[in-house]
């Protein structure tokens, strides 16, 4: 879990609270600040503001769901959520979302992010059922530990880390 605190910034055009990135984990459950907007997602080449909605979470697909199924992920998930997502075979069919946080000249902002992660030793690979001649595996197999180390060995806004795991 991360608690993100973004102080107010007199010149918000000069910086980001968090630069553009995808989350390295499987799924992120984000509790946005109810009073101050700041999250933006990239859609069709344009940054779109995600305005906070009262009593609502924002759910982000992370890099691991772009590759595989949650069936391979060991961490405890509520059963209903797990069953729902077991069907989310992906091999690139779902994309992890590129997002960033901007700062505000008048108001500070807080967000709380819960990261659902595979265990370090979980082997992540595209599900065989989705691999065929016409649809080859887009990613090689790796452990989450390998991925996570690689992710944090680079700058957050470098090219997507998943590109380094393409097969
Ligand atoms: O503060 C936000 O809205 C985004 C936080 C975020 O992207 C993260 O913690 O990975
Ligand atoms: Fe994020």
From TrEMBL:
Keyword Iron on entry: yes
Coiled-coil ranges from the UniProt annotation: none
Entry keyword set: Iron, Metal-binding
Domain Fe2OG dioxygenase span(s) in chain numbering: 1-118
A single MF term (Gene Ontology): metal ion binding
Superkingdom as given in the UniProt entry: Eukaryota
Membrane among keywords: no
SUPFAM superfamilies xrefs: Clavaminate synthase-like
Pfam families noted in UniProt: 2OG-FeII_Oxy
Name under which the protein is recorded: Fe2OG dioxygenase domain-containing protein
Organism this protein belongs to: Musa troglodytarum (fe'i banana)
């Amino acid at each position: 879990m991360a608690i993100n605190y973004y102080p107010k910034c007199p010149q918000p055009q000069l910086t980001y609270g968090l630069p553009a990135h995808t989350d390295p984990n499987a799924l992120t459950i984000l509790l946005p600040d109810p009073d101050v907007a700041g999250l933006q997602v990239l859609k069709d080449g344009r940054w779109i503001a995600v305005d906070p909605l009262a009593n609502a979470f924002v759910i982000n697909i992370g890099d691991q769901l772009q590759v595989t199924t949650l069936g391979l992920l060991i961490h405890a998930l509520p059963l209903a959520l797990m069953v729902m997502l077991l069907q989310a075979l992906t091999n690139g069919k779902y994309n992890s979302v590129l997002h960033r946080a901007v700062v505000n000249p008048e108001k500070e902002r807080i967000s709380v992010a819960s990261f659902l992660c595979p265990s370090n030793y979980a082997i992540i690979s595209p599900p065989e059922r989705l691999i065929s001649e016409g649809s080859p595996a887009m990613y090689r197999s790796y452990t989450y530990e390998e991925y996570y180390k690689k992710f944090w060995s680079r700058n957050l806004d470098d090219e997507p880390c998943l590109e380094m795991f393409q097969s």
